[in-house]
Amino acid sequence: MAKTDFASGDKLTAEQMNELGTELNDKADRSDIPSVPATPTADTLSGATAVGKSVIKAADAAAARTAIGAGTSNVKVGTGAGDALAGNTSIPAATPAGTRAQLDAGTDTTVRAFSAKAISDYVAAQIAAAAG
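^ that's the sequence the OP posted. Answer follows.
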């Protein structure tokens, strides 16, 4: 073929392309042709930390958690001892505190939390009133 004055937009036939390819292959300096790099792996990633590589290589979520030091976090949602409560669970309000006046009146029907001192003072007053 020996055509060396190609212009942009020249169109060659398939036969001409094959002929040109043969000429170039015969003259090519193969040392200028870069080699195709190996397929990257987690271990060959540049800039990745050891932890990051371990996460990439993890076979499952548990192995990934182990790689980042998270341990196990397979929380069971339920109502048993040790179970986590669901996000829509209502937690009862704390029992309201009671007063000495409520003990003295004796008519309050609301469940209340009384301190040991308030109960002790009430009982001592009742004993004193009964003895007196």
